[in-house]
Amino acid sequence: MLTASIFGLTACGAKKQKQEPIAKDSVAISIPKFDADSAYKYVKTQVDFGPRVPNSKAHESCGDYLIKEMTRFGAKVTVQATNLVGYDGKNLKARNIIASFNLEKATRVLFLAHWDCRPWSDHDPNPANQKKPVDGANDAASGVGVLMEMARQLNKQKPEVGVDIVFVDMEDYGEPDWYKGEKKEESWCLGTQYWARNPHVPGYHARYGILLDMVGAPNAVFPKEGYSLQYASYVIDNIWNEAQAQGFGNYFVNKQGGFITDDHVPVNQIIGIPTVDIIHFTENGFGSYWHTQDDTMKNIDKNTLHAVGQTLLAVIYKEKE
Ligand code: AHN
Ligand code: ZN
Fold it and tell me: Would you say residue 37 has pLDDT above 80?
């Protein structure tokens, strides 16, 4: 696993039940029920656009769809459009899409997922596929879909705190395996690096952040990722304890994982918001379909979407100002 600190200031993936009130600090809090069927549809709608790779029609249409849906869910939507430059010198038309709820609240929680697709299937076992774009069902339409369903719930019932959902662009334009030149970790997470240096609100801060990456695979496991423990161990504890309490301990496993270069790194290191990564990985990596032609809807499981979404709704609705 990668351990280098690369985004430093100087350097550059269910069933409906009846809603029951729960008590915390003797005040009853009702936690909305996460609808995994709804989340699944949001994942599928993204995938149906085709690979959302930079500068493609599918990318543009999917971005428009995200803006439209978030507006429909009552969010204040801010679109950060900018040109970023890929490792290969290509100009990439990027949009970070920010959906904000409870604008009047100073205490805020940040959620992130990347909405772009990798233009290459560089891990595909078939060399003939390695320059084809991925469908990106798990990487990372899954995370976006879970956040969309959470947004739909946030619109129906307000939590105590403010919430900002950032759909970040150009996470997955990191150098492909077959690239022969020098590899730099900052070729990844381009949209988040931009946002962390140019937040949608000047001086933006959140109490903490939660990144979702590859959160839709059947029997996914989310170990406690290295940077997340380093920068935001209390957030890890809170989420993993909540998941355990709700019976999702088979997903949110009590194990420490390696360090992963992902969108939470620039959020921690550049803008200084303690942020964790909920990401499926094992000793064998991110799943056999990762960065292959097989990252399709057949690897998306509603039970996993439900475990993640329901846990995070509980975390948000228990949060006090
Ligand atoms: C690297 O492989 C360097 N980071 C994993 C982050 C990632 C890629 N998430 C989705 N695609
Ligand atoms: Zn990826």
Answer: yes
Beta pairing, strands 208-213 & 108-114: parallel
Backbone angles phi, psi at 2, to 5 degrees: -85, 135
| Ligand 1 atom 7, closest CA | 262
Nearest to 5 by CA among 206, 183, 280, 268: 268
Supply the pLDDT for residue 222: 98
The domain ranges of the chain are: 3-317
CB 188 within 8 A of CB 116: no
Q: What's domain 3-317's architecture?
A: 3-Layer(aba) Sandwich (3.40)
Instruction: Tell whether ligand 1 has an atom less than 6 A from the beta carbon of residue 262.
Output: yes
Mean pLDDT of 169-189: 97
Tokens encoding 34: 């996460």
CB 4 within 8 A of CB 269: no
Residue 40 in this model has a pLDDT that exceeds 70: yes
For residue 263 and ligand 1, the question of a CB distance below 6 A is answered with no
Q: Are 261 and 185 in contact (CB under 8 A)?
A: yes
Segment holding 164, helix H or strand E: strand 162-168
Ligand 2 mean position, distance from CA 188 (Å): 9
13, pLDDT greater than 90:
no
Query: Residue whose CA is closest, atom 8 of ligand 1?
Result: 172
Instruction: Using a cut of 0.85, tell me whether the model's pTM lies above it.
Output: yes
